Task: structure prediction
Amino acid sequence: MIRLLRAYLVPYRLPLILVVVLVAIQAIGNLYLPNLNADIINNGVVKGDIDYILRIGGVMLAVTFVTMLCAIVSVYFGAKIAMSVGRDLRGSIFRKVLAFSQAETNQFGTPSLITRNTNDVQQVQMLLVIALNIMILAPITAVGGVIMALREDVPLSALLLVIIPAMGVVIGVSLSRALPLFRSMQAKIDRINQVMRETLSGIRVIRAFVRTEHEEKRFDEASRDLMQTQLRVTRLFALMLPLIMVIFNLSSVAIMWFGSIQVDNGGMQIGNLTAFMQYVMQILFAVMMATIMFVMVPRAAASAERIAAVLDTEESIVDPEQPASIAAAKGVVEFRDVDFGYPGAEDPVLKGISFRAEPGQVTAIVGSTGSGKSTLINLVPRFYDATGGSVLVDGVDVRDMSQEELWRLIGIIPQRAYLFGGTVASNLRYGAPDATDDELWHALTVAQGRDFVSEMPEQLGAPISQGGTNVSGGQRQRLAIARAVVRKPRIYSFDDRFSALDFKTDSRLRAALREETHDATVIIVAQRVGTIMHADRIVVLDAGAIVGIGTHRDLLETCETYREIVFSQLTAEEVA
Result:
């Protein structure tokens, strides 16, 4: 945690120094007031000198005002620094996650990444708000209080040798037990986020299968698990704080007891005893403030570890030091003896994949569920890197290119058509910010989405909710296709993007796409054979290996796997 905070506090050196100076002045002022109070009692009240009381009282008021002003300004700048560090941390985590490949994203999990960028950053931020005042004020007050107490009476100060270690033992034991609980608590918050996201994403499935009670039970179990951990932490600190208060109050009784003996023997004046009492109270109050901070330290430390784990993770997919470039991109995609296995998996998903996709041709990839179709197509934009062999674009290995240049060549329509909150136009311009309205309407015409967009009251300005939940599945797919068409890439990658369309719309869309993409490379992953029957080349996958390449007619004669897929979906008359 110290390493993390040190790195993010560097830009705020000047306001941090200002906070330290202001808090130091505040602490010195607090330590000076009991001494002035003792002078008033010893020299003013005892001797009845009203002028002395008024003069010293005026000084006390001035010191109090300066102390108050320093406290206000230091809290303001301390809060500003803490909020700025929180902003910087969230920005760093967000940028880091954007650079992650799918492997790193899967390693942490989406719910955990969300928690780390919200709740964990908030814990560190809250600690900073308190620490920038208490962490500086408490030690100065404690050390200064001990020095001033020794000045008043050395023998009576021996009580501190018992009081402070006793408080230290209570605090130390409590914190050592709290840290593992706070780590566990953050993991259980991740679990609640995960269950909540799954429930919200699958609400229709839950209702369709009448699993509402089951999901309520899942969430209740996760919530109760977190509650039990929080209760254990609360009980721990509920025991610690009363113990500290007991030590606090017993200390006051002991000081009054032994101090009164000193006053009775004439070894100490009443004003000095009052000052000594106030110094000891300031010392104990400083320890109390430190305790409040230390209550937050374990949880913030656990959160800082989780944040650092994200920031310290090395991306598995990075740009080369000297990226290769393509002078005149054509869009030729080639797989050369490609193997791929997911991290931690026993067997590879893809084995010995070799084929070539040419511009002006439609290359289709079919296979049974789990054969590796989506994994194969995800290797082209480097969502994953091949673990064996190479994937080439225009003869250049994609690992030798910068990711930005590679992505400019590809128009991806992923398996799940995701739309961003905004408007139809903002979603279509996502890959081409400078596209004109005419270009947007043209892309919608190609994607067979012009009709339903025209019927919307605001047309291109029609609102789209997050995830595109206010449009149907087929409309989402057509908008996602139009978004790729607007970009005019050299390579089109369709990952099962026609499944939600009826046959008539599917047919019109494929005809329009063929005309629009006549000089581009088109790769289609499909479940429905009718979508790819007229493809120039069909690649058939089975258990991660290619079992057939050719046209529809050729594969019907030569590939048993393809024939089984076709006859499982079409009748003999339809095939003929």
Notes: The domain at 333-575 is CATH 3.40.50.300 (Rossmann fold). Residues 414 and 495 are 5 Å apart (CA to CA). The radius of gyration is 35 Å.
